[in-house]
Specification:
476 residues, 83% helix, mainly alpha
């Protein structure tokens, strides 16, 4: 192990030496790192002077943490170019062949460059934050608690690891520096959107939820690191000269996986869909366990916390909450008629959004959407019991008739998303990342089209025309 880590250090030392002797990298990075806190301080002063006119003390108290979060993010985006050029830049300069021909393992080469790629943005971010805190401490601004500073530094670290890991992955998969720099927008823009949510949590003042955001970003960063190391192959990097958009190859690869060896629709269901479903055995069990755990956790939370909320809520508030929660959880409502087409379109849209979220987050956002839906069910049933009704009766009459079809469809869809994330972070010898992504997309498409959509269609018909009748009869 010590010899393996020494090889990693050799790569990291080479990268550090190249970076810290290049004035074209250090000079703009140093200027921006020290000038941005000064600019942010001027903006904060003006914001405080403006907000104080309206007595918004809560916002003023949260202005410093918000500024620290932005200041830590800005140097990372500037120094991201170092990670983007880590592999493809050396390939264009013709200096990567001696490095790739060394006796080092693939993970040692990748991890050595990754460490340096993370070190430079973090160093710039930390210096910028510390400089800003020194400036603010001399002014009449409220400083956040030490625990908030710990959260902000951890968020800055997680952002740096997340963005650099994505940049390294882009550098390995790109064939030109120009392409890598253009793809950088797929790093900066999502993280900027993520920071908007984190900023809302800062102004909201809910530190417990912010800790969950820290954990989520760290998990995403770890998954991206795993993907990069799993799919790094020096032979593949040396063998590519230029990538062309071959739509014929894309369609042939997708269609071959989607159709398989089936000749008829019946054989397609019997062989291809059934073969894909067999691969979902473990994810299917995981989804069921997550559903049970999410339901029990939300139910217990509702039973423990909702009574205090109900004491201050009006009848209209309770009615509106039950209505919105019931719609989110898929419960049919007495006296409310929705068309089957509307219900079907809504379920398909939510399933597609969960799939897209799972694709960009290696299943994390897809699983989160699934748990939120399950949580609505548990929370609503807990609220129903607190109001004096039978949660079992409501579940059997308001959810189970169409849930017999809808719940398996959601579990299968979630299992597909979970498998996609697991396969992406697992080494696949002999396959490029693009080919593997196309095959996974084809597996998802054939199960979604052949099984999930029919189940959702039947569930929508039952929810629109059968479940309301059962619910009305039972409640009477």
């Amino acid at each position: 192990m010590r010899d393996d880590l020494y090889m990693v250090w050799l790569v990291a030392r080479r990268e550090l030496r190249d970076q810290f002797r290049d004035w074209r990298i250090l000079t703009p990075l140093l200027i921006l790192t020290l000038s941005f806190p000064l600019l942010m301080n001027v903006v904060a002063k003006q914001a405080v002077a403006y907000i104080n006119q309206y007595g918004a003390n809560l916002i003023v108290d949260r202005l410093v943490p918000f500024s620290v979060l932005i200041i830590g993010f800005f140097p990372i985006t500037i120094s991201l170019v170092v990670a983007l050029e880590s592999f493809v830049g050396e390939k264009e300069r013709g200096t990567i062949e001696p490095l790739l021909s060394s006796p080092m393992e693939n993970w040692q080469l990748y991890f050595g460059k990754l460490l340096v790629g993370i070190f430079t943005p973090l160093l710039a971010g930390y210096i910028s934050i510390i400089f800003y805190v020194i400036i603010v401490s001399r002014q009449h601004l409220n400083m956040p608690e030490p625990s908030v500073f710990v959260q902000l530094f951890m968020l800055t670290t997680a952002h740096a690891i997340l963005m650099v890991s994505a940049a390294m992955l882009i550098s390995v998969q790109s064939t030109t520096v120009r392409a890598a720099n253009l793809l950088a927008s797929f790093i900066v823009v999502p993280v900027a959107i993520l920071m908007q949510g984190e900023s809302a949590l800062l102004f909201w003042g809910n530190n417990q939820v912010l800790w969950l955001a820290v954990v989520a970003v760290i998990v995403m960063a770890a998954l991206l690191m795993r993907v990069g190391i799993s799919h790094f192959q020096r032979e593949y990097l040396l063998g590519r000269e230029f990538d062309t958009l071959n739509l014929r190859w894309v369609w042939k690869t997708f269609w071959a996986r989607f159709k398989g060896d089936a000749k008829t629709v019946g054989s397609w269901y019997h062989f291809e869909i059934w073969a894909t479903l067999r691969q979902l055995a473990i994810p299917f069990v995981i989804m069921i366990v997550m559903a049970v755990a999410g339901y029990l956790a939300s139910y217990q939370w509702a039973m423990a916390n909702v009574p205090a909320m109900l004491s201050h809520a009006t009848a209209g508030d309770i009615s509106d909450f039950v209505k919105s929660a019931g719609q989110s959880a898929g419960f049919a409502q007495q006296g409310v008629h929705l068309s089957a087409l509307f219900i079907f379109a809504n379920n398909v849209r939510s399933t597609l959004l969960a799939f897209l979220g799972g694709i960009v987050s290696f299943s994390v956002l897809g699983m989160l959407a699934y748990l939120v839906n399950v949580g609505f069910v548990g929370g609503l049933l807990g609220l129903v019991q607190l109001m004096g009704y039978s949660p079992t009766l409501l579940f059997v009459a308001g959810l189970l008739p169409h849930g017999i079809f809808e719940i398996p469809a959601q579990i299968i869809s979630g299992a597909l998303i979970l498998r996609i994330g697991a396969v992406l972070v697992t080494p696949q010898l002999g396959k490029s990342m693009g080919q593997m992504a196309l095959e996974l997309l084809a597996d998802w498409a054939k199960v979604f089209i052949g099984l999930v959509i029919p189940l959702l269609a039947v569930a929508a018909l039952i929810e629109a025309y059968v479940t309301p009748m059962i619910l009305t009869a039972v409640l009477k």
